[in-house]
Amino acid sequence: MKSNIKPAEGKLGILLPGLGAVATTLIAGVEAVKKGLAEPIGSLTQMGTIRLGKRTENRRPKVKDFVPLADLNDIVWGGWDVFEDNVYESAMNAKVLDAGLLNSVKDELQKIKPMKAAFDKNYAKNLTGTHVKTGTRYELAQQVIADIQNFKEANDLERVVLVWCGSTEIYYEASDVHTTLDKFEAGLKADDKLIAPSMIYAYAALKLGIPFANGAPNLTVDIPALIDLARETNTPIAGKDFKTGQTLMKTVLAPGLAARSLGVSGWFSTNILGNRDGLVLDDPDNFKTKEVSKLGVLEDIFKPEENPELYGDIYHKIRINYYPPHGDNKESWDNIDIFGWLGYKMQIKINFLCRDSILAAPIALDLALFSDFAKRAGMSGIQEWLSFYLKSPQTAPGLPAESDIFKQLIKLENTLRYLMGEDLITHLGLDYYEELVEAK
Amino acid sequence: MKSNIKPAEGKLGILLPGLGAVATTLIAGVEAVKKGLAEPIGSLTQMGTIRLGKRTENRRPKVKDFVPLADLNDIVWGGWDVFEDNVYESAMNAKVLDAGLLNSVKDELQKIKPMKAAFDKNYAKNLTGTHVKTGTRYELAQQVIADIQNFKEANDLERVVLVWCGSTEIYYEASDVHTTLDKFEAGLKADDKLIAPSMIYAYAALKLGIPFANGAPNLTVDIPALIDLARETNTPIAGKDFKTGQTLMKTVLAPGLAARSLGVSGWFSTNILGNRDGLVLDDPDNFKTKEVSKLGVLEDIFKPEENPELYGDIYHKIRINYYPPHGDNKESWDNIDIFGWLGYKMQIKINFLCRDSILAAPIALDLALFSDFAKRAGMSGIQEWLSFYLKSPQTAPGLPAESDIFKQLIKLENTLRYLMGEDLITHLGLDYYEELVEAK
Amino acid sequence: MKSNIKPAEGKLGILLPGLGAVATTLIAGVEAVKKGLAEPIGSLTQMGTIRLGKRTENRRPKVKDFVPLADLNDIVWGGWDVFEDNVYESAMNAKVLDAGLLNSVKDELQKIKPMKAAFDKNYAKNLTGTHVKTGTRYELAQQVIADIQNFKEANDLERVVLVWCGSTEIYYEASDVHTTLDKFEAGLKADDKLIAPSMIYAYAALKLGIPFANGAPNLTVDIPALIDLARETNTPIAGKDFKTGQTLMKTVLAPGLAARSLGVSGWFSTNILGNRDGLVLDDPDNFKTKEVSKLGVLEDIFKPEENPELYGDIYHKIRINYYPPHGDNKESWDNIDIFGWLGYKMQIKINFLCRDSILAAPIALDLALFSDFAKRAGMSGIQEWLSFYLKSPQTAPGLPAESDIFKQLIKLENTLRYLMGEDLITHLGLDYYEELVEAK
Amino acid sequence: MKSNIKPAEGKLGILLPGLGAVATTLIAGVEAVKKGLAEPIGSLTQMGTIRLGKRTENRRPKVKDFVPLADLNDIVWGGWDVFEDNVYESAMNAKVLDAGLLNSVKDELQKIKPMKAAFDKNYAKNLTGTHVKTGTRYELAQQVIADIQNFKEANDLERVVLVWCGSTEIYYEASDVHTTLDKFEAGLKADDKLIAPSMIYAYAALKLGIPFANGAPNLTVDIPALIDLARETNTPIAGKDFKTGQTLMKTVLAPGLAARSLGVSGWFSTNILGNRDGLVLDDPDNFKTKEVSKLGVLEDIFKPEENPELYGDIYHKIRINYYPPHGDNKESWDNIDIFGWLGYKMQIKINFLCRDSILAAPIALDLALFSDFAKRAGMSGIQEWLSFYLKSPQTAPGLPAESDIFKQLIKLENTLRYLMGEDLITHLGLDYYEELVEAK
Ligand SMILES: NC(=O)c1ccc[n+]([C@@H]2O[C@H](COP(=O)([O-])OP(=O)(O)OC[C@H]3O[C@@H](n4cnc5c(N)ncnc54)[C@H](O)[C@@H]3O)[C@@H](O)[C@H]2O)c1
Ligand SMILES: NC(=O)c1ccc[n+]([C@@H]2O[C@H](COP(=O)([O-])OP(=O)(O)OC[C@H]3O[C@@H](n4cnc5c(N)ncnc54)[C@H](O)[C@@H]3O)[C@@H](O)[C@H]2O)c1
Ligand SMILES: NC(=O)c1ccc[n+]([C@@H]2O[C@H](COP(=O)([O-])OP(=O)(O)OC[C@H]3O[C@@H](n4cnc5c(N)ncnc54)[C@H](O)[C@@H]3O)[C@@H](O)[C@H]2O)c1
Ligand SMILES: NC(=O)c1ccc[n+]([C@@H]2O[C@H](COP(=O)([O-])OP(=O)(O)OC[C@H]3O[C@@H](n4cnc5c(N)ncnc54)[C@H](O)[C@@H]3O)[C@@H](O)[C@H]2O)c1
Ligand code: NA
Ligand code: NA
Q1: What pTM value is reported for the model?
Q2: What would the pLDDT profile of C296-335 be if each residue is shown by its tens digit?
Q3: Residue of B326, B339, B349, B351 to mutate, testing the D interface (most D Cβ within 10 Å of its Cβ)
Q4: pLDDT at C400 (0 to 100)
Q5: CB contact under 8 A, C253 and D253
Q6: Which of A115, A125, D177, D362 has the fewest CB atoms within 10 Å, counting from its CB?
């Protein structure tokens, strides 16, 4: 297997539609890491280790030492935005990172200027950017394709990946124009308003065989037309919605309750956030996109239809509140009403003083690096093993999404082990005790 | 494999040293369940399901329908205590379950009267029970053996298991008398004070080939002498300390942080509880036993020596507070200081309004049923696959304990699959996408 | 002064428009107290003490022993509702009190059957009651007057008071028809839709010289027309909105911050509740009434225009969430962003697991008893000294409302002292040290 | 009255025994305020306003514009410590204020060097300072007197005050040597170990007629010998223990519960702190001093003997935990078990992310300024009106301490009004409604 994976030689371009809080935190962070000023905490590819073989072998290399990933020093950044601010200015506005840190990589950040965005204000009413391309959707797609090609040539890149870090678009569902590639391309030409701006970037990338990952909850690449295109051009895709904060906690905690067969009657989740993302989500249409993405995870994990006595009657409510005093320091509260032995009630309350973009940036990095790796490993289409990073993961048609973060992790790790020719881990481990079996 | 497992025919005796809050909640609960008055929530064996085969097969039977476990209707209860109260009286004192519920099973509970305890007040200074056996430790052991045999005959039982539900004993470490069976038996005869009362029950059970599980944090069966005896008499053992409440949460949450390579600088855990268990733990010597049991889990999970940048400098503090107003409604607070991308700090605060014995009772039940099953499946010695239920699990010498509840769960499930002749689950699942592999 | 207060002789009728959770908790509770089954905790009139004279005098009688209030044994209950359920049935539905307790006063409660309501569904869209009067608003008022008179005669009552415990009405402001008594009475005859149902009860009571207190946030008696009528008929009025739960906490905590000149930049309040009140408030129009009532208190207390550096820029947000799993057990979270010395930031987080009607019932009782007392003491119109009990207290025109619960308490206590001929308390107390002054 | 108060002319020396976190935060802060870099938030003297006259007069000046206090620009700083660090170094160690802010007043801070301390290691075992005076207690007292006189002359000061900001001393109670001035002075000469170091400073100050306030929970000036000396030399004294953080909240919240006659069955308070103060308090003997100071407030406020049904059975527990990860960012949790109407239970949980020294510094400032004011106003001995600032306030013998912060505030405000010849406020306010009375 290992022999089939192309090495990570040459430079990798990471192009980000949307150079806001997450994107600039990512870029500034990697530049700081490259200078030895900070550590890429929260990134499994950079900090994580993976167990190989039996426990007694004590093999536990870093992921990046086990799998051939692009080196941080080989990354070149670019992106699009509806505002003209360069990455330094945008990072200062976002107020996620300290001015001191940003100034230490000011030169690198100032150089990165957004290309004009493919945008449609109907998809984000609270945004009034002016740095936008003009033309029909088809023309916009051609311009994005040209942007990518120019960027690749200008920077002498070996490979490119795209990660959508743009604002959450308003809620929409897949409609006829999204069902086949033919209809989609016809829709582009007809400037069909049902094609969202984010889809234009995705289409452009996939046409060029460039991996595309989607950090927002909008469908984007999660439509048959683009899934087909991905398979056609042998390109990995991954979506949707970076799994951070409250949902991250939920997909950690819910599996714990399910593991123990503890019942759940209610789950109330509320949070406050005061950044630009919060402002966009203050519009009910955009909030709905986020809400749908967040609501699904409990059903995935609890499977109420199979466990009706425990999870058949959960009242799950999510409220997001725009609250400027906290800026990017999103804070969440969960109240979980559970019941145990004989139906006796208990409550779990979680208060997470988190930092939104601090949690999202390393995810965007890992998605970029793993997407590039997947491409080199000959994988294409939906990368279910990356659902570890996503609130609302794409799966093969007919297959329920798996939101349990621990199953997602095993899937990710066993995928890496499999691709690298290592034994899969089953945690059986009877051999340590019984000398009965070969399994690990 | 399946063919080798003896069926669960006839009656199963469950004997509990310590008929306090946990034990009476267990007994009253099972009796209520048998009458259709309540559900055994929180018990994996009774309520849990297990996935078999590929996801698309949709095979997800209840555990009890998959594995041949003793039926609840075949259970006969017994136990020992230093107080004379019958199970109804003791349950009323414990104030865990409503009087209404207890009265509905009053007849069944009143019949269960404790046998005299093998006790030594030095091991629990805050207890002043009088319902105790007399004699040297060796004589006590012989009396317990006789108790078990009489109980078995009197009730016409096919099989028996013991689960220690007695108070936490004061802190002690393994010493010379615990190292070999010979020394241990000599110690019994010499009435060596270093042999704890709980060990007397364990010795008696193992001598008879009867499985023994330990719900308290004291060593008990976790000493070479008794591990050897277990192997000799082909008897499964499991210990130690029911994993409930705050530690349960910890072993759910910590793996989630580790999965995402998020750093941890401090973890402060405090709780308040007002039951008899709390009173015993108010003595510093007994508290130490609990503390040691609770402290270990973070190291098991975070492996600081392998991940020094993330977990090399955790300040972990645990405080238990006796607080009568809450009775058995233990309540815990955790403050977790974490850091992410570039070292930026965040905090997670968890407040768990739990009910101690409500969480512990189904664990005691599962340990009893699975221990009995293990015996019938020909397994003996340490049952690492039961560490799912334990705060401080026993492992083979030299093998680090695994406290990550999700790895424990996979281990448990894959053990059941293995014993029942089903494929192990690896969560690889590439076959749904690539038709490349056979693995699931 | 004392000599002018009429004694509390004979029976007092307490009539409650709205026999829902609060009203039935009040009635059942008083009946249980009368039987010696429980204590009227939370009621200042019944449980509270009041200091008289100098500290060294050690005079601290119960309020009810100091002020001539009606005795609980002299109360006769009645009310109106849009549902036909008697008080026992309604209390069972409300699920505030245990069935056991309710059954112990079942006879008393079953006897109390609601009179038909003066109702207009436009004022509470989520309610579909059928037990309603018909006719123009003027005719409804005449029917309510007759109801009151019949009730008084039938029960041989000396005095009557009304306390509105009906659902929160949709948001409305005072309009022309509310400005004078003449216009109001013309409006009644013209069946003017701008006259809310609650106003019909208030008008009927005041016409008869019967005190009226308003436990809901709707204006009701807080309009010039009815304030004038109250002065005309020498009748005390008090409103509006029982001060319980989160707002109670707010008016306790905010004065503490203001006392210490600590700045506040944000205050986020959210709560979950699952009772019928919550269902009504789930309608945005009704929620608005509640929100307006709750929002004002911070301004009253912090006076941002006078303390702009500390309170000029508070972001205050209130969210109420209907969450059925908790029933009447309303639960609230407050996050308060404060700043201290040199602007350094701190946070206070409050989680209140409260019981809505348990907090409201004793307030309704005190308002009834004190309103009756005020009438006997010859006081009329707005009773500012009762603002202690109210979220959004009425004041004399041009006078800012005082929401600081401690100033409200001193006002209440000094009013009682004044009326009973005792010295006012100033807490000066220099005399203990300096022998300089007479003040206390 | 006003005419008797001496004006605040000339320079005021503030001398602080203990130049640690609180003291340096105070000094650095005032210097920053003087430069216009920050605001003295949290200081009632600097930021607070006071209502004068009737509400309709709208007179609400700043306290410092109403009362003749020393101007911040007239303050000269000095102090003693067992470590040699100057105030800049000590502030950097304390890590309370940002390095940026400290650097902007570096010159001012570096100049302030501690004088050698009067110290006895038995009173703070976790401290190993070397910058200490030698001699008997009497000699130490003479040296401190000389220090003060030299400081006054060298800086051309008009007046001086002392505020103890030293570490908490181990627990001790008043003994024979503390009962009279004669015995005390004999004890100094005999170098009696029962005389604590803090008493030496207090004695020196009072001998010179210099006000002394005590920010720590040790007795210090709260002994008959020094109270007598204060009266003799016409000197104000105030103590003890700055009221910040958790206790501040407690004396805000408890009066709110008492106001409403809500019962309390338990109050559990725990906190974590990681500064030097926390290290000293990690010693059980020093912790006891703090605990005693903190425990009293609930009794003061709830008066259980007078309200046995509500407060007769409170279980009050306080735990302080040294937790280095949080540094000076003390964080506290309170769980309050309350009961209302008919005994139904509710819970209040408070989580305060506070900053210890940020809360304490403005209190130290106010105590200094008000003590100086009191001296000029001819007041002497215990200043009960300053108990607003203190956890464990001194009172006249036989008078119970008043810990309700709102009563303390009225006392403080009415004292200022009284001294300045303004009407006392009673909040009666009937005049707005009834034209009946003159009271306000
Ligand atoms: N931060 C998190 O924790 C987190 C978690 C999950 C998902 N997300 C998602 O990630 C995305 C980015 O979040 P953020 O906090 O950086 O938001 P942000 O508002 O700071 O940045 C988004 C940027 O996208 C730009 N943009 C919008 N539409 C565009 C278009 N069509 N083309 C190019 N640029 C466009 C905006 O101008 C803005 O600068 C959002 O969709 C958010 O919901 C974030
Ligand atoms: N409840 C939980 O969540 C939980 C979790 C983990 C572990 N545990 C452990 O389970 C055990 C039982 O907990 P509990 O809440 O039921 O405590 P409990 O105090 O209510 O009951 C313990 C009983 O054991 C009896 N006992 C003590 N020594 C004995 C002896 N030598 N022989 C026979 N009886 C003896 C006591 O008299 C008492 O009745 C404790 O060790 C506790 O630490 C409980
Ligand atoms: N419980 C609290 O803590 C609290 C606090 C402040 C204010 N309040 C207010 O008190 C009121 C009562 O609260 P609740 O919890 O008892 O609500 P509830 O819904 O249980 O009871 C209200 C009752 O009023 C009846 N009603 C509505 N309109 C009526 C009309 N025109 N005439 C007669 N009956 C009418 C309804 O049918 C219902 O039975 C609400 O307005 C609520 O907002 C309650
Ligand atoms: N920060 C708060 O919120 C707060 C609240 C209430 C009370 N207090 C009390 O205020 C005091 C100061 O607190 P801190 O946080 O600044 O502590 P800190 O430990 O930072 O400073 C105390 C300083 O006093 C010095 N010291 C000890 N004994 C001395 C002596 N005999 N003479 C001269 N110096 C001496 C120590 O060397 C140290 O530098 C403590 O007693 C604390 O308990 C603080
Ligand atoms: Na293994
Ligand atoms: Na007034």
Answers
A1: 0.93
A2: 899 999 999 999 999 999 999 999 899 999 888 899 999 9
A3: B326
A4: 87
A5: yes
A6: A125
Residue A235 structure tokens: 């390109």
Residue of chain D nearest C336, judged by CA positions: D352
> What is the percent of chain A with per-residue pLDDT over 90, rounded to a whole number?
84
> Which token pair is D294?
């903190």
Contact D341 C429 (CB under 8 A): no
Q: Which chains touch A (3 or more CB pairs under 8 A)?
A: B, C
Task: Show the tokens assigned to D77.
Answer: 């700083």
Using an 8 Å CB-CB cutoff, list chain C residues near D64: none
The DSSP 8-state label assigned to residue D6 in this structure reads: P
pLDDT digits (tens, 9 = 90+) for C351-364: 999 999 999 999 99
SS3 D254: helix
Ligand 1 center–CA A168 separation, angstroms: 6
Give yes or no for a contact between B12 and B161, defined as CB atoms under 8 angstroms apart: yes
β-sheet with B115-116: strand ranges across: B115-116, B75-81, B12-17, B159-164, B212-214, B236-239, B381-382
Residue nearest to atom 8 of ligand 1 (CA): A216
What is the DSSP code (8-state) at residue D221?
Answer: T
Check whether B223 has a pLDDT greater than 70.
yes
User: Which atom of ligand 2 lies nearest, measured to the CA of B242?
Assistant: 6
Inter-CA distances, C328 with A338, A388, C20, C96, C114, Å: 17, 39, 12, 6, 22
Pocket of ligand 3 contains residue C373 by CB under 6 Å: no
Instruction: State the nearest Cα–Cα gap between C439 and chain D, in angstroms.
Output: 9
Q: Which of A375-379, B36-40, B273-277, D21-25 shows the lowest mean pLDDT across its residues?
A: B273-277
A70 three-class SS: coil
Instruction: Give the CB-side neighbour count of residue C334, counting CA atoms within 13 A.
Output: 26
What are the backbone dihedrals phi and psi of residue C8, each rounded to the nearest 5 degrees, phi first?
-90, 60
Mean pLDDT of chain A: 93
Nearest to A325 among C266, C272, C319 (CB): C266
Q: What angle do CA D276, D281, D286 make, to 5 degrees?
A: 130
Q: pLDDT tens-digit profile of B224-239?
A: 999 999 999 999 999 9
D110: pLDDT strictly greater than 50: yes
Q: Which two tokens stand for residue D202?
A: 């207090």
Q: Facing residues of D331 across strands?
A: D272, D353
Residues within 5 Å of ion ligand 6, judged at the Cβ atom: D 429, 440
What is the residue with the minimal CA distance to atom 12 of ligand 2?
Answer: B165
D351, D362, D360: which is closest to D249 by C-alpha?
D351
Cβ C11 vs Cβ C73: under 8 Å: no
* Number of Cβ within a 10 Å radius of residue D124: 23
Q: Which residue's CA is the nearest one to ligand 2's atom 21?
A: B20
- Give the per-residue pLDDT at D436: 34
- The whole-number average pLDDT for the span B147-170 is 97
Of residues B285 and B79, the one with the higher pLDDT is B79
**Between D55 and C234, whose confidence is greater?**
C234
Tokens 């702190």 locate to D273
Q: Is the CB of C356 under 6 A from ligand 3?
A: yes
For residue range D118-131, list pLDDT tens digits in order.
Answer: 999 999 988 888 99
**Minimal-distance CA residue of chain D relative to C36:** D342
Minimum-distance ligand to the CA of C389? 3
| Nearest partner of A11 among A64, A99, A59, A72, judged by Cα | A72
Q: Give the whole-angstrom CA distance, residue A262 versus residue A8.
A: 46
Locate the chain B residue with the closest alpha carbon to D351. Answer: B349
CA-nearest residue to D266 within chain B is B325
Cβ atoms of residues C59 and C133 within 8 Å: no
- Per-residue confidence (pLDDT) for residue C254, from 0 to 100: 97
pLDDT of res. A2 = 62
Which atom of ligand 4 is closest in space to residue D129's alpha carbon?
Answer: 37
